[in-house]
Amino acid sequence: MTNAQVSDAALSKPQAPPRAIFDWFSAIAALAVIGIYVRAIYFTPIERLQGAAQKIYYLHVPAALGAYIAVGITALMSLVYLWLHDERSDRLAEAAAEVGLVFLTVVLTTGPLWGHRIWGAWWAWWDMRLTLTLFLWFIVAAYLVVRGGIEDRAMRARYSAVLAILAALLIPFIHLSVYLFQARLHPMPVVLKPDRPSLPPEMLTTFLLSFAAFSVLCIALIRARYRVGVLRDMAAELAS
Amino acid sequence: MSEGRPPGTLAAAWLIARKDLAIEFRSRTAFLSALVFAVLALCIFYFTWDQSVVPAADRAPGVLWVVLAFSGLLGLQRSFSVEEHDRGIDALLVSPIGRESIYIGKAVGNLVFLCAIQLIAVPALALFYNLAMGRALLLVGGIVLLATIGIVAVGTLFSAMAVNTRLAELLLPMLSLPFFVPILMSAAQATTLVFAGRPLAEAWPSLRILIAFDIVFLVACTLAFPYTLEE
């Protein structure tokens, strides 16, 4: 993609400045999340075996869902960028990666907190999902550092798209090697099956609602971050 | 190759690899520093565990892979930074060769460079950690080669990317190490089994990951490389 094309794409966008970052979409997302925690804390029964510690699941699991949505968007938009060279897809990939990193951080903070209470260990390398999430965090962090280290917009978009696509290829390999590692050396957790057979209806409803709330939150944050990207590029356009 | 006609993809790749190796052979600075680093690290790791708790032979595979990964990074860093002096990369870009050739050539150069280090580092490990020198060492050599192909495949691409960023060499470990994770895990497991005298069939699942990684990333990085060059 040439520089002329880049500026063409930038100029073809409406020049009216976008509205303030705070918008109704974000407000609804915030309210939905608040509603979920009121429900989870006051109106959902306490799990018999795990006690109050289980309530961290209403943050941990939906945050993981949000992280996977965001990271998935980044990988998809990177592919779209290399295909169409559309600047918007690069900006969306960037926004999703940053939001993904936040959600992954939430997953990695709440996971050990729960694990310490229930497994008796802060970190469990044999837990595939936790280990995979950790490496995903490293990759997304590297992705954002690469973006920060390149001035040229077209080059930044190309490099980060290449990195995101290679990372998407890497994930199955990490998954396989971690699986092989834990299968050889460690027993699976027997104290508690991570995938509980069934949930009481109140808990299930809270769970499903929290998934919905976090999906909305994820999209709201990506949308807000995307607007920051638009403003930044417009500012750069004006400065040059 | 006749005068005036551009060489084919592999011939051009070989020219680039030969050029890089000739530069390295004449100066030997990167090779010596990476080699000394590897052997020194082997020695230092020997003293970081309590001998009475974990026998040297048990930690040898882990030590080997940590050392090979980091000394490999030292070698990879130099791959594209040599082109930055006097903008040698521009000369490569205007020459009538495909961009895949540049990648393959650089990767072959890096592979030879890393293998030369390992050719000394692996026997040094066997020597310092009192390991069996016979068939096991040959098998470990095979595992090392498989793993090095994967390391070079992704490392060469990231080396090209890293030199064009503001962070330069600082970025390479951050980019490469997550990609080394499946290689190092599989290779270390296979090496552990081989040093323990287990049949090779037990290491097959790990070797299969290594082979699949090599194929997938050699293809993917060759395709992705043209995007990392300036247009």
Structure description:
The complex is a heterodimer of chains A (240) and B (231). Chain A has one domain (54-188, 198-239). Chain A is 76% helix and 0% strand. Chain A has helices spanning 3-12, 24-42, 57-84, 87-118, 128-148, 153-185, 201-239. The longest helix of chain A is centred in the C-terminal third of the chain and has 39 residues, at 201-239. With 231 residues, chain B is an all-alpha fold. Helices cover 79% and strands 0% of the residues of chain B. Chain B is built from eight helices and no strands. Chain B has helices at 9-27, 29-46, 56-84, 88-94, 99-128, 135-163, 171-195, 200-224. In chain B, α2 (29-46) packs antiparallel against α3, α3 (56-84) runs parallel beside α6 and α6 packs parallel to α8. Chain B is globular and about 60 Å long.
Unreliable runs of chain B, pLDDT <50, ≥5 residues? none
The DSSP helix count of chain A reads 7
- Which series of helices and strands of chain A comes N to C? HHHHHHH
Mean pLDDT of chain A: 84
Mean pLDDT of chain B: 89
Please tell me the total number of domains of chain A.
Answer: 1
Number of helices of chain B: 8
Task: Provide the descriptors you would attach to this structure in a database record.
heterodimer, A: 240 residues, mainly alpha, 76% helix, globular, B: 231 residues, 8 helices
Task: Describe how the helices and strands are arranged.
The complex is a heterodimer of chains A (240) and B (231).
Chain A: H1 3-12, H2 24-42, H3 57-84, H4 87-118, H5 128-148, H6 153-185, H7 201-239
Chain B: H1 9-27, H2 29-46, H3 56-84, H4 88-94, H5 99-128, H6 135-163, H7 171-195, H8 200-224
Helix pairs in contact in B: 1-5, 2-3, 2-5, 3-5, 3-6, 3-7, 5-6, 6-7, 6-8, 7-8
